[in-house]
Design goal:
Blueprint lengths: L11 H6 L6 H32 L1 H28 L2 H26 L5 H29 L2 H29 L5 H22 L18 H13 L1 H31 L5 H29 L1 H13 L2 H15 L3 H25 L6 H31 L3 H33 L7
Length: about 450
Amino acid sequence: MSEPESPTRNDPVSRFFGLKPGDLAIVAPATLCAFTLFSAYSVAKPLRDAIGASVGSKEVAALQTGTFLTMIAASALVGLLVSRLSWRVFVMFASIVWVLGAATTAIFFASAGTESSHLVDKAFFVALSVFNLLSLSIFWATMSDILDSDRAKRAFPAIGLGLTFGAIAGSWFVLKFAKTISYSNFIWISCGLLIIAALSTAWLLRFAPARAREKRRTPGGSVAEMIEGMWTALASPYLRRLTIYLLLYSATGTLVYMLQLKILDVSFADLAADKAKIARAEVSATIDFYANILTASLQLFVAGRILRWIGIAAALTITPLTTLSSIFLLLWSPTVAMLVPVQVARRGFHYALDRPAREVLYTVVSPVERYKSKNFIDTFIYRFGDVVGSWSQVRLEGMLPSFQIATVTALCLAFAGVGVSLGSMLKKRERASEPSSPIP
């Protein structure tokens, strides 16, 4: 018997999101899973940033390289496991790995102590970055498996809000308790959230289609798939330019991030090591908290209207120009008082405006091109840009300030120029796909 087409009348949540009867049984646990998964990451992320601020630019660049290489190895392992396990078994296995990894990290943090945990710190920096990439990829792949296109359009806005509010809740928790809770206890909190996410995932898998029990499915994110995606991206002038755009976004964003770590290092250098870590984590959580609030506010109230008003080409110049302004302001005044508003504004505008505009670029490529190239661009190129940006900052630190400013200006202007050209190419593709008007 098919479901009625009208939204549920008795449930205010269903009415608000336009859900149909039966949707809430999937949307509620999916939103809870998204909320707890990203809360767990957001609780741990300021601790990772504090670690990065305490080790120096060269060490951070080495850690970014280690993250990139670990991501490739992890993608190969995911591909191997998915080819031998059913999707249901693999997803629950991954959920258990996240919980055990968090618990092991908490135990190591508690036993090593803040003074002697340098090796644990470095492993945590890399592992958390890889976890963020893989956990969200597996989550969205699972949701795409469970939801058909129509139901996904109704469910994804609520699930997306779960991610955003999870980020706000996690960063608020660190901001609230940074001075009273130890590193290990923060990770135990993340572990508890991951357990809730795992239980939500187990509930969601009850709705998985029969093919989720099959083995040897195409592994999302495997190395072989990345290579295929690379050739697809390089073969298309449009996708090639999109690849360059994301590479420049990631590299220039990492330059700002490296400046953030340097400011946090210098600002709290006179504190004891344990107190300095907490202070740095508190500043990072402050940035995350207000940036996510700004993102949510813009997304809910003005982002759609702004994108329609200024157009995609102009929207794609917002991040390059705000990045350039951020670097100038932080070089002019390398203080925490300048860092917080600069990073909040830059990240808020990026996630609310630039990111949706970038997703629009994929609407004019074929489904095959999108499937093959998007994963390569959004994962491999993104992380490779982190490596390029971090080592570029190391090299720039040894050069004259005037040369640093000229180099950064050239990169950001090139970044903006690629954005404008992509907007122009998007318009041409949209015109070409429009049906010809009938001859009078």
